[in-house]
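Structural prep section.
Before we set up the soaks we want a predicted structure of the protein with arginine in place, mainly to decide which crystallisation condition to try first. Input record follows.
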Amino acid sequence: MDNKQMVAEALANVIPSLDLTAIANLLEQPKSSDLGDIAFPAFSLAKVERKAPQMIAADIAEKIDATNFEKVVATGPYVNFFLDKGVISDTVLHQVIAEQDNYGYSNVGQGQNVVIDLSSPNIAKPFSVGHLRSTVIGDALSNIFKKLGYHTVKVNHLGDWGKQFGLLITAYKLWGDKAAVEANPIDELLKLYVHINAEVETNPELDDEARLWFKKLEDGDKEATELWQWFRDESLVEFNRIYDQLGITFDHYHGEAFYNDKMDEGIQILEDKGLLHESKGASIVDLEGYNLPPAMIKKSDGTTLYITRDIATAMFRKRTFDFAKSIYAVGQEQSNHFRQLKAVLKEMGFDWSDDMVHVEFGLVTKNKQKLSTRKGNIILLEPTIAEAVERAKNQIEAKNPDLEQKEAVAQAVGVGAIKFYDLKTDRRNGYDFDLEAMVSFEGETGPYIQYAHARIQSILRKAAFTPNPDAHYQLSDAESWEIIKLLQDFSRIVERAADNYDPSLVAKFAINLAQSFNKYYAHTRILDDSPERESRLALSYATGVVLKEALRLLGVEAPEKM
Ligand code: ARG
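Run finished without errors. Recording the tokens verbatim:
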């Protein structure tokens, strides 16, 4: 039970005129901790009771059952509660120990579906850091929503359709080399893509040809389809290698192409509702009422667009999963697209479009420069992961050369470092991709937290500690109280992270908890003989459980030894 609840219940017994929720809503945090931990202002009772608030406060303080508190005192019009740190510490530690990795779970979601559109890289292009962000944010959100009792569906909405495939086919037919693509698919396809984009600037006829190829693709032309299928298959082999390394899985790989034969229904509704207008041969939906530019649904040659497929996708997801929320973890640069998408669906009469959330995130830069596939200025993910693992290995080698399973630990630390650095950033902000900072064991990093967790496990092994459900844990120092308060806060943090669709709240919580533990460790000789020894170990144990769980929510492993 949380502290507010405990205070509210004690108050409810002596204030018959207010119910529990009303009391809980009135509770405040006193301006200074000298005045206690939680305060109840008596003003609102003055009218009913026809007494001065000071008198009411004094009256309540006298009548209340204070057994669970250090003390309860009236100060002017407030009833101030001083929490009994001993009682709370004991309760919290026993709760973590009993619930283990279930600690912090709450069933607010009641099994409702949350669809998460994540990762969604574009075929025939390297997996970008932007897609990395989408992947790790989407995956963490899935873990967070599950922790709250939702059922999540992770969909990889592959970018495997669109005019760029017309460009690619054109380029391949002009300059492509089958053997080279087979040997090095994404590299080679990217070269072709960069080449044709440069060429198109001076030779617009190539653009017409590309459009024609895409048209053929949409119409099911054999040659176009075969080439497309080949590019797609080769790309997926590479993407899956990256997902394996990152430890990410999906429930569906329905990409844009999947919707090629499912767009008619949406277009028909738009037509029936008179929402489609002709503009220079193209079909558009006017969105002036939303302060948005018109959405183009069909080009003049009859081909469809990204948004056309997203309309079909949204309808399919609603029908298939009847979602409570449909989340799109996609970069900020697409915010207009998602506004238009929601607006069009709303116009079509789908009120559930209000449940679609664009979870947008900021740009990743490298040396403060913008990244761009088309200009070939990119961070390639595979070699980057390899380098992170290498750096992790070097540090482990220096710190703990005798460690068993060094490779596996280095993998967990290197990959965890990249993920954590991304997730600790407030999602709307971008960050500069700095591998050295990411893999550092100092500072607000994944390895720092993993190290704190491993240190705890090593202390527990030395003490051969096993928690005892009947023990009475007693802690009184300021450093342990900081930890207890954080442990107590965990479920609230998870809920806030879900409300804001922002895993960084969990990441910051993990940083705080690891830092608080390290402070405690610096102050207290945990293993020394003392009547408090069992309690200190229980505190370390509980911290370990919650650190590991917070990391798990972020998709980061917590090795037992480092
Ligand atoms: N493939 C797109 C891109 O890389 C992201 C797709 C996001 N999901 C969606 N349903 N539009 O920009």
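Observations: The domain at 3-83 is CATH 3.30.1360.70 (Gyrase A; domain 2).
Flagged for discussion at group meeting.
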